[in-house]
Amino acid sequence: MSKLEILNNEKHRDVKIITDRGSAFGENANVIPALVNEMGALVLDFPVCLLKDPENGNFGLHIFLGFEPDENLFLDGKNWKSSHIPAHVRRQPFRVGFSQDEEGKTRSALITLDVESKRVNSQLGERIFDEDGNRTPFLMGMEQLLNDVLRGEEASQAFVQLLVDNDLVEPVQLKAEFEEGQSKTFDGLYTVNDSKFADLSTKRLNEFNKNGVLKVCHQMTTSLGHIRKMIEWKKNKVSG
After folding, report:
1. What is the DSSP letter of 230?
2. DSSP letter string, 117-157
């Protein structure tokens, strides 16, 4: 369970953050959110796809990390088998929250801390405030990362909505054999339907090319090739 508190230099003066990696800190999730503004780095290592929220039916941009719940095939003990660690992993245990004015309208972004996170303690790791209550370089770096995450979430939502509005989303047919003679079919993953780009107007295609949408779509579809190495990793895991 998470318990979020608005970051405060008095209340959290002595808090330290463990920056180690590993499943002990919740990094064994098999899917995590992806951001459009880090797509160029993500697709070098990970398959990036769309997933549908079971509660509201909306699509979201995600990184696919494992075939089972709580299975991150990219995590090897305390190390990631990738050149890039996703922003939504690196930002932990911080999140962006919002305050509202008295009328409940104007929202201001603020930093919250999950005090129930196993990263949060008073003995080990990086301090977020110094003894005088000033922000440390670690916290300033985290603030920049959270700012990138906030902007990335907004851009990602706009990108996904653009795909939906132009009917460019299709399900991924994923079938894998991990043990000899035993295959599994995985549903729920979606990607970009490249063939439907042919039905778009020249004007719309030019717009997509100009604002970088075409590039991101191509990166997404190409990134699914990483699932092949994940199948091999899974096979080795099962046989080992």
Report:
1. H
2. STTEESSSSEESB-TTSPBPHHHHHHHHHHHHHHHHHHHHH
Q: What type of residue is 162? A: L
- In this prediction, residue 198 has a pLDDT band, given cuts at 50, 70 and 90, of confident
CA dihedral 46, 49, 52, 54 (to 10 degrees): -20
Cα-Cα-Cα-Cα torsion 125, 81, 42, 83, nearest 10 degrees, comes to: 70
Span 89-119, pLDDT tens digits: 999 999 998 887 666 666 788 999 999 999 9
Contact 146, 96 (CB under 8 A): yes
pLDDT digits (tens, 9 = 90+) for 146-181: 999 999 999 999 999 999 999 999 999 888 888 766
Kindly report the pTM of this predicted structure: 0.91
The CA–CA distances, whole Å, from 157 to 109, 150, 176, 210, 228 equal 18, 11, 30, 19, 28
Q: Which CA distances in Å does 218 have to 14, 187, 215?
A: 46, 22, 5
Phi-psi region of 181 (alpha: psi -120 to 50; beta: other; left: phi over 0): left
Contact 79, 45 (CB under 8 A): no
